[in-house]
Amino acid sequence: MRLENRLAFVTGGGRGIGRAIAFAFAREGANIAVAARTREQIETVANEISEQFKIEAFAVECDVAYSESVERAVERINKKFNRSPEILVNNAGIVETAPFLKTDEAMWQRHLTVNLTGTFHCTRAALPAMLERGWGRIINVASIAGKTGAPYISADAASKHGVLGLTRSLAVEVAARGITVNAI
User: Fold this and answer.
1) What tens digit of pLDDT does each residue of 142-156 get?
2) Measured distance CA(92)–CA(70) in Å, rounded
3) Rounded to the nearest 10 degrees, how much is the dihedral formed by the CA atoms of 170, 171, 174, 177?
4) pLDDT tens for residues 162-175?
């Protein structure tokens, strides 16, 4: 198992792609901290992972839109595992669609806050320990919308373009210090 003795922190892990990512890391032997806003979903995922793979999986409530929530989640992970995550998967995100002229400021702000600022919050919380350790992996889940715009997704496309810019900049900044930063 390639990730035995590693700890992965997966946001938006209660369902869909995040759940699949958490299972993929568990399959490779990583312990998992699965985070989302919905307690019931993340508890189910953590229990399923623990039972199926006989590894430690921890459900931690976290709303990536709020730095305090992210900081509390990382503190709880550190306390539970007696260490910080070596792997961060910034998967939490939202997608709402509307023509541009019907995209109100609240919808625009939700996308930037969750998709882009949430990635910023989680990375700022996890990166210091990775730098101290000299090893870490940050994976930002982007979207084809981050490379190419399309009708009715201007808020999502703008936020995902931002995620790609953040990924590229941070990757160059920390590469020489044992940290890789990629987007998928």
Assistant:
1) 988 888 889 999 999
2) 12
3) 160
4) 999 999 999 999 99
Residue type, 184: I
Hey, is 96 helix, strand or coil? coil
The tokens of 23 are what? 């299972």
* Structure-block tokens of residue 97: 């669609």
Q: Which amino acid is at 65?
A: A
What's at 122, amino acid-wise? C
Can you spell out the DSSP letters for 104-153? -HHHHHHHIIIIIIHHHHHHHHHHHHHHHHT-EEEEE---GGGTS--TT-
pTM confidence score: 0.96
Reported as a single tens digit per residue, the pLDDT across 79-136 is 999 999 999 999 999 999 999 999 999 999 999 999 999 999 999 999 999 999 999 9
Which residues have C-beta within 8 Å of that of residue 12, sequence separation ≥ 6? 18, 35, 36, 64, 91, 92, 93, 141
